């Protein structure tokens, strides 16, 4: 249990309640976007859709958008984009790591084979790019992040001993971009985009630290750094608009820092 906070830990369903309707819109849009024109790709995409996780990254996009404006089609496209990028990364990671399990189910690699998994990941990346091809600001933000994620994975595979840099590139930069493009999608001011981006970066770092603790990896350094990163992340939120969306972001931060699975 993280100390120095008196905020009660809410459930993920309670945290999502201010964007429940928009999340349903996202799910519909995401499902439609994943459809492929041919088999067996469409079967793989249905498998990806059925193996969904908590939707943390789309939640960050939607909350960041709603903090500064009204969620719109561009927001839904941005949320779908990040979930497709995340899904593609997981599929490719399972091939690289030779993992047969993902979220309690057989991984795409185990279910369909290595070659099909690589092609499915490539398909998701290409479809994701098409979604936001007309918004150069969001596209450039995400292309930079996707490149940095690949660098982070390779740094880890190479055995480099720079924990914070690796988790920042592997995980935190994508969380940062989720917040940034959510704000961008509703026309937020540059200062607002910067503040929510800073939140996303620190949030992503503490999220990965908690992940490592739960996975029995890098436990000593993760346990050492996590409380300070929780304080920093909550401190950043103090400078953002005080609304129910602000409260949801605060609750999500505590949830991710203290989660048990």
Tell me what the structure shows:
This protein has 261 residues and is mostly helical. It has one domain (18-258): Farnesyl Diphosphate Synthase (Orthogonal Bundle). The chain is built from 12 helices and 2 strands. It has a two-stranded antiparallel ribbon.
CATH superfamily: Farnesyl Diphosphate Synthase
Mean pLDDT: 93
Shape: globular
What is the count of DSSP helices, taking H or I runs of 4+ residues? 12
Order of helices and strands: HHHHHEEHHHHHHH
At CATH's second level, what is the architecture? Answer: Orthogonal Bundle
What do we call the CATH topology?
Farnesyl Diphosphate Synthase
Question: Which structural category do the helix and sheet elements fall into?
Answer: mainly alpha
Domain unit count: 1
Low-confidence stretches: 1-6
Count the beta strands. 2
Biggest sheet record: 2 strands, antiparallel
As a percent range, the share of strand residues is: under 5%
Report, as a whole number of angstroms, the end-to-end distance: 13 Å
Fraction in helix = over 70%
CA radius of gyration:
18 Å
Order of strands side by side in the largest beta sheet? 1-2
In CATH's first tier, which class applies? Answer: Mainly Alpha
């Amino acid at each position: 249990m993280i100390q120095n906070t008196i905020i009660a830990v809410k459930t993920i369903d309670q945290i999502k309640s201010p964007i429940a309707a928009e999340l349903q819109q996202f799910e519909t849009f995401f499902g439609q976007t994943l459809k492929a024109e041919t088999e067996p790709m469409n079967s793989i995409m249905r498998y990806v859709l059925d193996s969904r996780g908590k939707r943390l990254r789309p939640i960050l996009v939607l909350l960041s958008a709603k903090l500064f404006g009204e969620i719109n089609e561009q927001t839904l496209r941005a949320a779908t984009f990040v979930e497709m990028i995340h899904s593609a990364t997981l599929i490719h990671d399972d091939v690289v790591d030779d993992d047969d399990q993902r979220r309690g189910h057989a991984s795409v690699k185990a279910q369909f084979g290595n070659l099909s998994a690589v092609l499915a990941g490539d398909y998701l990346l290409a479809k994701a790019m098409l979604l936001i091809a007309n918004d150069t600001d969001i596209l450039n933000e995400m292309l930079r992040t996707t490149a940095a994620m690949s660098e982070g994975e390779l740094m880890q595979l190479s055995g480099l001993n720079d924990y914070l840099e690796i988790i920042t590139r592997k995980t935190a930069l994508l969380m940062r971009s989720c917040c940034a493009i959510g704000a961008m999608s509703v026309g937020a001011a540059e200062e607002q985009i910067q503040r929510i981006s800073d939140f996303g970066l620190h949030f992503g770092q503490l999220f990965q630290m908690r992940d490592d603790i739960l996975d029995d990896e890098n436990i000593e350094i993760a346990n050492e750094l996590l409380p300070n990163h929780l304080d920093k992340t909550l401190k950043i939120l103090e400078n953002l608009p005080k609304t129910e969306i602000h409260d949801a972001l605060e609750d999500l931060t505590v949830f991710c820092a203290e989660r048990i699975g």
